[in-house]
Amino acid sequence: MPKGPTKRRPQTTARLLEAALETFAERGFHGASIEEICERAGFTRGAFHSNFRTKEALFFALFDLHAQRVVERLARAVDDIDDTDDPVWAVLTRMSTLDETEHRWYLLSTEFTLHAIRHPDTARTLADHDRLLREEIVRLLGRLFDRLERRPTVDLDSLARLTAAVHEGSLAQSLVEPDRLAPEQLAVTYLPLLIDAVSEPLPKTPSRKSSRRA
């Protein structure tokens, strides 16, 4: 049977991650100290180093946690499109939801991206994490087109990059001018047009219709 500290490790890690996201959002990646994160989480510095080697390692753990949330939310949105009259609008609206966690993550990820651009080794690690997330998004985009009964005519990896750029860029503008631009406004207005432009309807076949109803 696992010993006490081993059994408590997931809870310790979760509290450190939550404290780190809050601290990074308030103080910035460079401004936040390990001591401040530990104090907010209620742990010693030793607890931090038993879970993470560096602040960068902590960021990438937060990245993976955020990526998991993104994939799960997109998967649910794709699964639910049969329950709405405008499936693309429904998916985009759900993916553009800005809650406090997403707000904090945007602040941290934007600053860390600039940090990575200045440090090539970090940039390569960030690119690896981005690639893994993008692979999942590409898979779900394929499912989305299939559910829409459309066939993409462009490379889905490039499309995933473009939609991420639209999402991040429009979110930045919305956070600067929240009274003029809602977080989802640009995505729900223009991405449906893009999806139509980069795909074509699949041939209607009896077997396909029956399998979709099933």
From TrEMBL:
Residues 33-52 bind DNA. Keywords: DNA-binding, Plasmid, Repressor, Transcription, Transcription regulation. InterPro entries: BetI_C (IPR039538), Homeodomain-like_sf (IPR009057), HTH-type_TetR-like_transc_reg (IPR050109), HTH_TetR (IPR001647), Tet_transcr_reg_TetR-rel_C_sf (IPR036271). Residues 10-70 form the HTH tetR-type domain. Gene3D superfamilies: Tetracycline Repressor, domain 2 (1.10.357.10). Pfam families: TetR_C_6 (PF13977), TetR_N (PF00440). It comes from the Bacteria. GO terms for molecular function: DNA-binding transcription factor activity; transcription cis-regulatory region binding. This is Transcriptional regulator, TetR family. It comes from Streptantibioticus cattleyicolor (strain ATCC 35852 / DSM 46488 / JCM 4925 / NBRC 14057 / NRRL 8057).
